[in-house]
Amino acid sequence: MNRRAFINWVGVGWLASSLPVAIAACSSDTTQAESNTNKGGFQAVGTVAQLDKNKQLLNKNSPVGAVLVVRTTSGSKLSAVNPTCTHAGCAVNWAAKSQQFVCPCHGSRFGADGKVLNGPAAKPLKTYQAKIEGDSVLVNG
After folding, report:
1. Looking at the whole model, is its pTM more than 0.85?
2. Is there a single domain that holds both residue 80 and residue 120?
3. What is the pLDDT along the chain (141 residues), one digit of tens a residue?
4. What positions does the domain Rieske occupy (predicted)?
5. How far is 95 from 88, CA to CA, in rounded Å?
């Protein structure tokens, strides 16, 4: 075998052995961690333990942005909103007894569904779908 034929065979062998690596690198499969965090558009924002401990779960830096998750009176339904008041940008608080989000700055009140109950805010809070899966609290927004 001459030098040219040998180099051609080595080149073909290298190319053939590199092809599976290149295909795997370009694959669109998600890792296990990604599949645990993003389940059908839902993003993990915290744990059930955090929600139960504080009766609410505030995550200012979640994948969907700032989110406040609370359990409503029945305890089985979750309500999730962006906690930024639409009037002046203050962070709303959850008033469990009245089942309302209340703005401490100017007194705006919002229902568990984010709708304005009492101004001066005129726009509702942004809401998210929320659910519990395993020990994670997930929101979709």
Report:
1. no
2. yes
3. 788 888 877 777 777 777 677 676 665 544 434 444 445 688 888 888 888 888 888 989 888 889 999 888 766 688 889 998 998 889 999 988 889 999 999 989 999 899 999 889 899 999 999 898 889 888 887
4. 43-139
5. 19
Decide if 57 contacts 50 (C-beta within 8 A).
yes
The first and second tokens of residue 91, run together, are 């962070």
Tokens of 32: 């296990």
Residue of 21, 57, 18, 24 whose CA lies nearest to 138: 57
- 34-to-24, 58, 65 alpha-carbon distances in Å: 17, 22, 18
What is the residue type of 7? Answer: I
